Structure formats: C-alpha cells, structure tokens
Amino acid sequence: MNSTGELLSQVIKGDRKSIAKAITLVESKKPQDRALADDLLNALPEPGENTLRIGISGPPGVGKSTFIEAIGQKIIEDNNRLAILAVDPSSTITGGSILGDKTRMDILSKSDETFIRPSPSSGNLGGVGHATKDSVQILESAGFSVILIETLGVGQAETEVLEMTDIYLVLLSPGGGDELQGIKRGIIELADILIVNKADGNLEATAKSTVLDYKNAMKLQKPRHENWSVPVLSISALKSKGIDEVWEEILNLKNHLHSNNIFIKNRSSQDEKWQKKKKKNLIISMMESEDEILEKIEKKIIESDKQLLKKFTDWIKSIFKSRNS
Ligand SMILES: Nc1nc2c(ncn2[C@@H]2O[C@H](COP(=O)(O)OP(=O)(O)OP(=O)(O)O)[C@@H](O)[C@H]2O)c(=O)[nH]1
Ligand SMILES: [Mg+2]
Which of 73, 148, 203, 300 has its CA 20 to 30 A from that of 138? Predict the structure, then answer.
C-alpha cells in the first residue's frame, strides 16, 4: 500500500496523529506535497449530509473560544464527535495565544470525543487557510459529526468561513448601540443566529437591552435563509448560561435547512466555488514558482497580439489583487 493509502485508512479509523498529519499535508504549499494531498483528498469518502459545519464569528475578545468550550460539551453530550478548527485570530497580534485558546478549551482539550486543531494564521486575515475546507472533509471522514470553525468577523475571513459552513453564528458583546454602526453591521447581516455574550455580572442588564436592539435591527433585514427569522439570544459563555438554547436553535435551523432542501443546495454550491478557487490558486502558485513561464507566455503574446497581452496582464493583475485584498 502506498503512503497516502495508509494515511487514509488511519484517518478513517480516527487515529489522531494521522488526522493531524493529513491536515498538515493539505495545508502544505510545498509542490512535492501537493500531489500527495490531492491523492488523499480524491480518495476520501464523499462527505455525508449528517454532519454539521458551524462558523463562529465575532470581534476579538467577544468570547468565541469560551463559547466553544461551553457549547462543545453540550454537543458531545448529544452524542456527537466534535472537531474544532480553532483558527486563532489573535495569535498574529499576541504572537501566540494558541496556548491561551488551549487553556480556554480546557475541558474539551481533554475529551476523547474532541479534536482541536489550532490553525496558524500566517498572513491570512482571520487565519482561515487555503486548506480549511479540505481539513473539514478530512475530519468528517475521521468520524467527526460536528465541526466548529472559529473566525474573526471581519473581511475576507468571514466570507470564507461562510462559504464552508452550514450555519453561521455571530457573537457580539453587550452595549450594541454603537456596534450597529460600522463593521459590525456587516457581520450581523450574515448571522443565522445572533448571540449577545457576557450576559453576567454587571453586564447582564445591558445584555438584555442589547438583545432588544438587535431584535429590532434584524426586523429590517432579510435573513440569509427563506422563512428563517434570525433568533437573538443572550448568553454567558463563562457561566454556561443560555448554551442549551443556542444548541436548540442550531438544531431547529438544521432541520429547517434539511426539510427545505437548502442544506444540500448550499453544500453543492460551496463545493463548486471551492473547486474553482483551488484551481485559481493552483494557477497562481504555478505562476509564482515559475516566473520564466510567465515571461515566455508574454513573449509569445507580444509576437501575436499586443491587445491580448494587455488583457492577459490585466487578468493576472486582477487575480493578484483579489488574492491580496
Ligand atoms: N464576563 C464574561 N467574560 C467572558 C465571557 N466569555 C468570555 N469572556 C472573557 O473574555 C475574554 C476573551 O475570551 P475569548 O473566549 O478568548 O474570546 P475570543 O472571541 O475567542 O477572542 P479572540 O480569539 O482573541 O478573538 C476572556 O478573558 C474571557 O474570560 C462571558 O460570558 N462573560
Ligand atoms: Mg478565540
């Protein structure tokens, strides 16, 4: 058996070391790893519809990791195996809060039913890597039925996580009036369930009025899914208050998506987009590694058609621009 075949069978058995190795392989940008990663991904079983991929978004420090620790325990109690892609947005700022996240997920990190993968946020806003969706597929093949992806709710990262999850949760802190302005307006528009965290101690009353503010704001807004009105809930992740209600709403939405055929449609359009994106990235990395190929193409085009050259270089520039934006 070749090494990819062995790795795959170990992944399917749920061997933790092999799962980590497989994820490292699909994350690798080394050309020699790409072929192996593609072999592995092509050999993975088709993902089933019984899994649930949940994005957890919100501004820095709102309590995403603490919330995951709390709801994660509920998810396991409900007989699920749980994987967490603990994309660690602040690690670029603090230079290493992955350790912080591990301590914030103390109980989960000791659970046999849980796999936590802190993804490096190397240069990629919010830490969502080029391989996150592939990692999800690996984790599902290994028998994890619920996947949580934590992301910082800004810009490109939030859209990317939106495009690889079935359900998108947004966490906000009490004192919402100001948050309705500016960037936070953008993330609440994407929420399937809106959660006001830190409803404890002297923030409890503010949290309650913030819920009302958001409920009013949501009335003016078209939900992402037809016939789904976005619930606004207040919780305390730290004190594990309101967590059961969030899980209940997640399951309600899951049923809604399945019974209206939205679930499967959403997944197949996500897969299509992902494949396109991977092809685009492949072309870019080939271009980057092979400068002379680009020069050769340019020369050939110069000989034949100058206008075509302009179109071609504009296209290349637009790819780089969209990639860097
Ligand atoms: N009072 C209170 N504090 C909380 C609650 N949830 C989280 N915190 C605190 O808020 C701080 C940040 O929590 P994290 O869970 O790391 O927040 P995060 O959103 O994951 O942060 P980043 O990953 O850095 O964006 C920590 O000091 C937590 O203890 C809560 O429900 N109530
Ligand atoms: Mg965190």
Answer: 73
